[in-house]
Amino acid sequence: xxxxxxxxxxxxxxxxxxxxxxxxxxxxxxxxxxxxxxxxxxxxxxxxxxxxxxxxxxxxxxxxxxxxxxxxxxxxxxxxxxxxxxxxxxxxxxxxxxxxxxxxxxxxxxxxxxxxxxxxxxxxxxxxxxxxxxxxxxxxxxxxxxxxxxxxxxxxxxxxxxxxxxxxxxxxxxxxxxxxxxxxxxxxxxxxxxxxxxxxxxxxxxxxxxxxxxxxxxxxxxxxxxxxxxxxxxxxxxxxxxxxxxxxxxxxxxxxxxxxxxxxxxxxxxxxxxxxxxxxxxxxxxxxxxxxxxxxxxxxxxxxxxxxxxxxxxxxxxxxxxxxxxxxxxxxxxxxxxxxxxxxxxxxxxxxxxxxxxxxxxxxxxxxxxxxxxxxxxxxxxxxxxxxxxxxxxxxxxxxxxxxxxxxxxxxxxxxxxxxxxxxxxxxxxxxxxxxxxxxxxxxxxxxxxxxxxxxxxxxxxxxxxxxxxxxxxxxxxxxxxxxxxxxxxxxxxxxxxxxxxxxxxxxxxxxxxxxxxxxxxxxxxxxxxxxxxxxxxxxxxxxxxxxxxxxxxxxxxxxxxxxxxxxxxxxxxxxxxxxxxxxxxxxxxxxxxxxxxxxxxxxxxxxxxxxxxxxxxxxxxxxxxxxxxxxxxxxxxxxxxxxxxxxxxxxxxxxxxxxxxxxxxx
Length: 667
Known about the structure:
Blueprint: H1 2-14, H2 18-21, H3 31-45, E1 50-54, E2 60-63, H4 65-70, H5 84-93, H6 104-116, E3 122-125, E4 131-138, E5 144-150, H7 152-174, E6 178-183, E7 188-191, H8 194-199, H9 203-206, H10 217-233, E8 237-244, E9 250-261, E10 267-276, H11 278-300, E11 304-309, E12 314-317, H12 319-325, H13 345-360, E13 364-371, E14 377-388, E15 394-403, H14 405-434, H15 436-454, H16 464-494, E16 503-506, H17 507-525, E17 528-533, E18 539-542, H18 544-560, E19 567-574, E20 580-586, H19 620-630, E21 634-640, E22 644-651
Parallel strand pairs: 17-19
Antiparallel strand pairs: 1-2, 1-5, 3-4, 4-5, 6-7, 6-10, 8-9, 9-10, 11-12, 11-15, 13-14, 14-15, 16-18, 19-20, 20-22, 21-22
Helix pairs in contact: 5-6, 14-16, 15-16, 17-18, 18-19
């Protein structure tokens, strides 16, 4: 722009400023001067820059075509003699200047001030966004040459460069890595703020200084060797370094150095990028430690574990699985099972199970039996599960194989033993069920003959002691017959040979009959025996023999385990749903909590004797409970040791009958 302005000024000076002075009377115009002026003006008119010539009074003398074309809005005013101030004001109002309407006057004045005191070129922006550069130069006669150039492209380039530089500087300053530049002499030329954060040295402290001023010799030896390799190879070199940072802690960082070249490919310096990897190294070590722990658990778990990819190739196996296969992990990794397992049920089970896991994405568990080399058979639980990524896609298949051979052998042995025990129990039950006649016939004869003897049917006995012996024989016979009947009942129940003969039973009569069977013993033992039948509970549908057997068993049991002065009661009720409830309670010694379930097992008697040795087979409660359940009823035993025992049993509504009778109390 300055060169163009000087050139234009020279043209006007060379012509003797003809355009203005030709109007003076003493200037003589010749064809030669006119031709020269015409050529010079044509040259000026052809310039891309806009040119305007003002006289000493700031009035327009001349402007070239470029000036007119870019100021078409005021082209009619661009005539010789026009005041420059008027042209400025008209252009501003026409939108050729960036000045707002309220500031046009001050803007015009500032432009006029520049004419009288030329300054550096003025850069201004039109309202349409384009940029211009305005330069003024005073002439000897007081006139002014004004040169206007379009610098929009330059401004755009400068702005782009500034934005690019800003972005790069932002990146440079905010990178989590240290970046610095040194010249060929090793002197710092540039560094980002991260350097200060790491080493506690400000940029001003290390600019124009060498690295040796800030770091220990051992560190510098490694850096010097790295830079020497960069200069020798002309390539990037990365090493790992350790240094004490400003926080006082040792840090590991990757130090990368690469060459900076000039236009002749000569290395003029080295740029360094250092990245702190302390946390990464710590995490890597933590990961290695974690993997070692997991590998320890993995290898020492007493089950077979492995991991495969979705193609069936082994990724990982543990030591027990190596032992199971009989080959090393190295021989298995990256291979499929069919490459080392023989075709057969084991291989088919593996592939079929894995296919199901892939299809369903769910855990699949199955029990398999495997024949191993040598003929040994193994039973295993095979569990295969999917390993999924964040998008829930199956990326691998894990396997847990548990050897249950010993357990299966124990189960089979137990099943065999149970089968043998059941067979023996069946034989016992069958024997007892079929021995009813053989056991009862001779016992009935003994009881009958003892009663004849005790009753002296065929005459008196010579000695009274024989009479007592005969009564003892009869009493023992009846007791033994009762025991045999209970055992035979249990046997028949086990064989399913008990059939209930249900009928409508008068509850008061049944209660009275049952009490009569027990009342003598209760009086003998000093135990109070009572009963109560609530309204509406005067009938029930049941097998009368079996119901009597249940009630008598429970009453005798209660009397047997109640000390002198105690009480035994029988209460019968019916609820709103039609169930008939029987409750036999005593104030006896009770049953310990640990024995409650045991006393309901066949032939089990716990030590709770009240009067010397316990009588009976231990079948009373068991038989009563079973007979209640045969009636589709419920049986419940509750007791508190030292307080007493209560037995509740209920018969369902479908098994109850109806008698129109008032509540009867039997005492």
